[in-house]
Design a protein that fits this description.
Radius of gyration: 27 Å
CATH class of the largest domain: Alpha Beta
Low-confidence stretches: 161-174
Structural class: alpha/beta
Shape: elongated
Helix content: 40-55%
Strand content: 15-25%
Order of helices and strands: EEEHEHHEHEEEEHEHEEEHHEHHHHHHEE
Mean pLDDT: 92
Strand order of the largest sheet: 5-4-3-10-11
Number of helices: 14
Number of domains: 3
Length: 466
RNA sequence: GGCGCGGUAGCCAAGUGGUAAGGCAGAGGUCUGCAAAACCUUUAUGCGCCGGUUCAACUCCGGCCCGCGCCUCCA
C-alpha cells in the first residue's frame, strides 16, 4: 500500500510522492525563541521527526527547512526590558531548543534558517507584492490586502466574506481596511530595532518570513508544509496568500497539521500557564525516551492528553521492548530455523510499514510490534524460536527503532560506571554460586540504591538502569 | 455563529458493513534461592444518545448531546 497523508488543503487522504519523485522538499514552522518551548510544541516537532524518518525509510531524500523566528514583538519587548540586543536575548533560547530537540532524538532539519538573516529577501518580497497591487500602507506599516487574493480561506475552509458573529475580532486595535488584512512589514516604533526598506524602516511580519525562506530554499512549490493546527489560520492561510500572489503557482502540495497536546482537557499553552518544558519533566526523573514515546505513540491528528500516568505507561512499554531485545540478543536458542517464525516476523514488518504508510498511524504500527513480541516470547518459552530466527526478529526491531528511536537508554549522568556495576554483578554471582544468598541480596540492594535493577536468567544476569 | 477534530474497557488507544488490535494498570496461575523478566487465564454481549437503511452497523444515512481546537499571538 502506498504512502498516504491527510492533506489539510483537500481534507482527504492522498497518496504522497515528491514532485520530482526523489527528494521531499518540506518546510516546518519552527519556534519563536522568546522563551523555552514546551512539550506541546515538541509534540508537533516529534510528529515531524516521525514524518522525516518514515519518508526516508521509504527511500526518499529530504530537503527540510525549519525556521527560527528570532525577531517578533515579544522578543523585542523582552530584550528591550533587559537592555539586550535581540541576538543576545534569543541566543540562549535557540540553543536550548536545539539541545532539547537532541535530547528527544529529533533529527535536525537539513537547513535551519533564521529570520534575521533573510531580511533583504523579505523586503524584496514585500516590495514586489506592493508593485503588483496586493498591499497598502497605513500608519507606517505595510499590509496585505486579503481582497486581492481570491483563494483566501481555501486552507482553513472558511468563507471570510460572510459575517463573523461571535468571533472576537477587535477591529479597533488596527488601522486596517479589513480586519483580516495582515501586516507584511511593521513600521519602526521608537527604540525598536529596525531594518531600512523602501517602505520605511521596520521589521518583517511573521507570515512573510516563512513564505520567503521556504521559497528561497525549496522553490515556488513545496512538497510538504507542516505545523500545529493552530497555524492553519491565519498563519498558513496568509503564507498561501502571499506566496501565490508572488508566484502565481501553488505554494504547497501537501499540508500536514498536528493536533494539540492537552493538559487536563485544555490545550497546553504559554498563555494558559498549563505547560511543562522538557526540563520540568526530566527533573521529575523521566527518561527522554518515555517522553518521546508518549508524544509519538498517539497518531498526530488526534489530540493527546498529557498525564504523568501516561508517561509511566510509556516507560513500561519501552521496558517491555528492551527486555525482549535483551532476550533476543542474549538467550541461548536451539539451533536451526523455524520458517513459520521468520514468516511471522516478516508479517510484523509488513504490518508495521503499512500502518505508517496510512497517514503515520503510529498506534497501529506499535500494535504490530507488540503482537510480534508476544508471539516471539511465547515461541522462545516453548523452544520453538531457533538460532536462525534471530535475524528476522532483529530486523523488525531495527525497522521499529529507526522510526521510534526509544530502545537505547539515555546514558545517566554521574552515578556508577558500567565497569563498577559489572564488578558488583560478578561478585554477586560468585556469592550466589557459593549459596551465600545474604551477600547476594545485599549487593542487589546496594545496586538498587544506585538505580540499577538486576534480572537473573539461565544466560546470566542482566542489569539495567531504572 | 462559522470551520475543524473527537466521544471505543480503570487509563491510553487502533479498527472494520459480518460480529471488538495493542499498551499500561488490576486479579489468578506457571517459572524462580530472592527479585524480576517471560508466558497462560481473566477484565467492553458492547464501541456518546435516538431513529433509519441492511440478512447483518461500532462501522453507512439523518437528527441530537457532550468535549476540545481555530476564528487574536500561539506547535
Amino acid at each position: 500500500m502506498a504512502l498516504r497523508f491527510h492533506n489539510t488543503l483537500t481534507q482527504r487522504l492522498e497518496e504522497f510522492a515528491p514532485a520530482d519523485g526523489k527528494t521531499v522538499r518540506m518546510y516546518t514552522c519552527g519556534p519563536t525563541v522568546y522563551s523555552y518551548v514546551h512539550i506541546g510544541n515538541f509534540r508537533t516537532f516529534a510528529f515531524q521527526d516521525i514524518l522525516r524518518r518514515t519518508l526516508r525509510a521509504r527511500g526518499f531524500l529530504l530537503d527540510h527547512v525549519m525556521n527560527i523566528t528570532d525577531v517578533e514583538d515579544k522578543i523585542i519587548r523582552n530584550a528591550m526590558e533587559r537592555g539586550l540586543s535581540i541576538q543576545d536575548y534569543t541566543k540562549g533560547y535557540t540553543e536550548a531548543f536545539f539541545q532539547d530537540s537532541a535530547t528527544l532524538r529529533l533529527e535536525k532539519a537539513e537547513r535551519v534558517v533564521f529570520a534575521t538573516e533573510h531580511i533583504p529577501e523579505m523586503v524584496e518580497a514585500v516590495a514586489k507584492l506592493g508593485s503588483s497591487g496586493h498591499t497598502y500602507e497605513s500608519d507606517g506599516s505595510t499590509y496585505f490586502r486579503i481582497a486581492s487574493f481570491p483563494g483566501y480561506g481555501k486552507l482553513s475552509h472558511t468563507n471570510l466574506g460572510g459575517n463573523v458573529a461571535g468571533a472576537r475580532v477587535d477591529v479597533d486595535e488596527y488601522e486596517k481596511d479589513d480586519a483580516r488584512d495582515f501586516v507584511l512589514w511593521k513600521g519602526q516604533k521608537t527604540g525598536e530595532p529596525a531594518w531600512d526598506a523602501p517602505m520605511g524602516a521596520g521589521r518583517p511580519g511573521w507570515h512573510i518570513e516563512c513564505s520567503v525562506m521556504a521559497m528561497m530554499y525549496l522553490g515556488q512549490t513545496l512538497d510538504i508544509h507542516t505545523g500545529g493546527v493552530d497555524l492553519v489560520f491565519p498563519h498558513h492561510e496568509n503564507e498561501i496568500a502571499q506566496s501565490e500572489s508572488l508566484t502565481g503557482k501553488p505554494f504547497v502540495r501537501y499540508w500536514l497539521h498536528a493536533e494539540h497536546l492537552m493538559v487536563e482537557g485544555k490545550k497546553m499553552s504559554k498563555s494558559l500557564g498549563n505547560f511543562y518544558t522538557l526540563r520540568d519533566i526530566l527533573d521529575r526523573g523521566y527518561a527522554p525516551e518515555a517522553i518521546r514515546f508518549l508524544l509519538t505513540a498517539t497518531p498526530y491528528r488526534k489530540q493527546l492528553n498529557f498525564t504523568f500516568d501516561g508517561l509511566d505507561a510509556a516507560r513500561s512499554a519501552i521496558e517491555r521492548l528492551r527486555s525482549f531485545r535483551w532476550r533476543l540478543l542474549n538467550e541461548k536458542l536451539p539451533a536451526g530455523d523455524n520458517i513459520a517464525m521468520n514468516e511471522r516476523a516478516g508479517k510484523a514488518i509488513a504490518d508495521f510499514d503499512s500502518s505508517l504508510d496510512d497517514d503515520l498511524n503510529t498506534a497501529d504500527a506499535l500494535a504490530a510490534v507488540f503482537e510480534f513480541v508476544r508471539d516471539a516470547n511465547t515461541a522462545m518459552d516453548a523452544g520453538e524460536f531457533r538460532e536462525s530466527n534471530r535475524h528476522a526478529a532483529v530486523e523488525l526491531l531495527t525497522s521499529f527503532d529507526e522510526i521510534f528511536k526509544v530502545l537505547e537508554p539515555t546514558a545517566a549522568e554521574g552515578g556508577a560506571s558500567d565497569a563498577e556495576i559489572e564488578e558488583l554483578v560478578a561478585e554477586r554471582n560468585r556469592a550466589k554460586k557459593a549459596k551465600d544468598f545474604g551477600r547476594a541480596d545485599s549487593i542487589r540492594k546496594q545496586l538498587l540504591d544506585l538505580g540499577i535493577v538486576l534480572e537473573d536468567s539461565r544466560e546470566g544476569t542482566r542489569w539495567k538502569r531504572k
